[in-house]
Specification:
By secondary structure, this protein is mostly helical. The chain contains six helices and two strands. A two-stranded antiparallel ribbon has the order 1-2. The longest helix is centred in the C-terminal third of the chain and has 25 residues, at 143-167.
Length: 219
């Protein structure tokens, strides 16, 4: 791990979890409703399932992104895997409204707010290595960088999706704060990936005469 990264800020180790044999299809959702962890059944059009779908899509996008990241960035690989696990934690919290009668389930799915500080520490560590941002950058810098930028936009959508649930008092606001900070992390991680892979970020240019830049086309 880089110097100074200790404790909760070091490369995270994701513990192995024993997965029970669960049947993939149940037919329970064939009529347009699905169950929450609380046991409550709601229409699949309910905002809670929009939020669950967006966080699931975000995790999938991160899985794609990391497949295109250089193996020479083990810290970034570990960080993304850790974030994917936390997105499952968020899904559990979203699927267990605070109004759930079984308070043991609510307590079991409480999201750990210290994860927000972890993201902030990771952001600070990466920014210490990055050149100052003096201009808007286009989504560029190689496949890994660009896919992390794409994941960031999905993260923003996930944040928007959980907001109505927070306003309704169904989930804690720590979830939106985490997603807000996660989008910041993904922006910085995209720039960090470009730097480590020796790729150039494309800067925004104000309108004028259109020109094809030398070297801008793939060989």
């Amino acid at each position: 791990a880089p110097a100074g990264m200790t404790g909760m800020y070091a490369i995270p180790v994701v513990p192995k979890v024993q997965v029970r044999d669960v049947k993939i299809y149940t037919r329970g959702g064939d009529k347009g409703k699905s169950s929450l962890y609380s046991g409550e059944r709601r229409p699949k059009s309910d905002p809670v399932f929009c939020a669950l779908g967006d966080t699931d899509e975000l995790s999938a996008a991160l899985g794609v992104a990391v497949e295109f990241c250089s193996p020479n960035m083990p810290l970034l690989h570990s960080q993304i895997e850790w974030v994917q696990c936390r997105l499952l934690d968020i899904g559990a919290a979203v699927a267990t409204p605070l109004s759930t009668e079984d308070k043991r389930k609510v307590e079991r799915t409480t999201f750990d707010e210290s994860e927000i500080e972890r993201l902030e520490s990771w952001i600070d560590d990466m920014e210490a290595e990055l050149p100052p941002l003096t201009n808007f950058v286009l989504y560029s810098g190689g496949k890994c960088s660009t896919l992390l930028h794409l994941a960031r936009t999905i993260c923003r959508r996930a944040e928007r999706s959980v907001t109505p649930l927070i306003d309704a008092g169904e989930i804690p606001d720590s979830i939106s704060r985490y997603l807000n900070r996660l989008s910041d992390f993904l922006f910085v991680a995209a720039r960090y990936a470009a730097l480590k892979e020796g790729r150039v970020e494309t800067a925004y240019r104000k309108g004028g005469t259109f020109q094809v830049r030398a070297g801008s086309l793939p060989s």
